[in-house]
């Protein structure tokens, strides 16, 4: 009895007899004598995915000639990375040690990259970025560490925990396989670091809350990251220590009399401790000194007392000056009747300013003589 097997275009079939593969059937019509209906086929789409790993290993072991003739076999070593292309487009990045078996179909190709080449080529980076513009992700792209370093920045790359080099601005990529790769992007411009809310006890046991701000930059990024695990954290801690030393060894009066004293002391200390660490502090200053509530009241009372004493001193000085002026005036009028007459007229003028109506009898001379008599009687 004859059996007809039809394999459509885009398909491939494995002919079986008693569960053993005996032949490969390509597209077309195939006729066989099948006594006892012992023949069967496994049909595969040529544009399908990879074969199951168990079936692929079985074919590699027992039918290597079929794999060579009809298959697209991928066997990567532990030192190789595979780039799988279909019709000229990158479809997948294969990790080292990957084993895949496809049926040969269309224009499928494989590019092998050595794992020793840690940096991803610029051409491959463009291919990885292009699908992202269409919100697509190439399978296996998580095996690439992508770093986009903006202008005025630099990248510090660590391989297996060891700082290696300084990367310029631009798009970079690194293979993650068999390496722990980390890139930290740092700002090369002048930056501001705030040390806020520091409660410090002065030498005379007064608690102050101080806010300090520092402007800093990297003078040598590689040196900083080779010497320090976290340069920013190191600088913050040293600013704290320097501020506590400057405030804790001085009294409140010393700090209030010279507000720039803290700035100069902290700046001098920071310059010493950061030398040789690739960090430069351009400037720093105390923004706020906050006193406790009760201390504010006491200081306000002290200032009020000082100002009151100053006001009394000024008042006494002015009174003394006025008395001296009156004495000089009296000496002048004693020897000069005209000056005395003018003073009398000035006195009359001041009195007249406070009186709505004045009636004069006997002339102005009698009024003046009366005033003189009144003053004489009072004396």
Automatic annotation (TrEMBL):
Membrane topology term: Single-pass membrane protein
Recorded GO CC terms: plasma membrane; side of membrane
Intracellular or extracellular location(s): Membrane
InterPro entries reported in the protein's UniProt record: Band-7_stomatin-like, Band_7, Band_7/SPFH_dom_sf, Stomatin_HflK_fam
Pfam families: Band_7
Major place of residence: membrane
Domain named Band: residues: 144-303
Membership in a protein family: Belongs to the band 7/mec-2 family.
Name of the molecule in the record: Slipin family protein
Organism: Proteus vulgaris
Lineage: Bacteria, Pseudomonadati, Pseudomonadota, Gammaproteobacteria, Enterobacterales
């Amino acid at each position: 009895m004859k059996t007809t097997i039809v394999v459509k275009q885009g398909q491939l079939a494995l002919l079986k007899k008693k569960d053993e593969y005996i032949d490969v059937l390509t597209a077309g019509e195939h006729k066989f004598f099948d006594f006892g209906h012992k023949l069967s086929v496994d049909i595969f789409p040529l544009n399908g995915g990879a074969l199951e790993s168990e079936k692929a290993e079985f074919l590699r072991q027992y039918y290597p000639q079929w794999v060579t003739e009809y298959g697209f076999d991928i066997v990567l070593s532990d030192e190789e990375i595979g780039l799988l292309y279909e019709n000229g487009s990158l479809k997948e990045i294969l990790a080292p040690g990957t084993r895949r078996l496809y049926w040969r179909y269309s224009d499928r190709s494989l590019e092998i990259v050595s794992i020793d080449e840690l940096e991803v080529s610029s051409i491959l980076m463009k291919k990885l970025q292009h699908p992202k513009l269409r919100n697509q992700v190439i399978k296996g792209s998580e095996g690439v560490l992508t770093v986009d370093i903006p202008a005025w920045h630099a990248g510090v790359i660590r391989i297996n925990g060891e700082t290696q080099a300084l990367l310029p601005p631009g798009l970079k990529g690194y293979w993650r396989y068999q390496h722990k790769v980390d890139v930290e992007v740092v700002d090369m411009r002048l930056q501001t670091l705030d040390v806020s809310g520091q409660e410090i006890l002065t030498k005379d046991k007064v608690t102050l809350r101080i806010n300090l701000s520092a402007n800093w930059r990297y003078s040598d990024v590689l040196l900083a990251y080779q010497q320090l695990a976290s340069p920013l954290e190191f600088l913050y801690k040293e600013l704290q220590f320097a501020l506590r030393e400057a405030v804790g060894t001085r009294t409140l009066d010393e700090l209030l009399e010279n507000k720039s004293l803290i700035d100069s002391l902290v700046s001098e200390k920071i310059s010493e401790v950061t030398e040789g660490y690739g960090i430069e502090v351009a400037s720093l200053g105390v923004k706020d000194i906050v006193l406790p509530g009760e201390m504010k009241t006491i200081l306000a009372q002290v200032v009020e007392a000082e100002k009151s004493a100053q006001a009394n001193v000024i008042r006494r000085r002015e009174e003394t000056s006025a008395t001296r002026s009156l004495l000089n005036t009296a000496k002048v009028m004693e020897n000069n009747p005209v000056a005395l007459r003018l003073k009398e007229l000035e006195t009359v003028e001041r009195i007249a300013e406070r009186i709505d109506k004045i009636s004069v009898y006997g002339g102005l001379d009698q009024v003046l003589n009366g005033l003189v008599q009144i003053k004489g009687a009072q004396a």
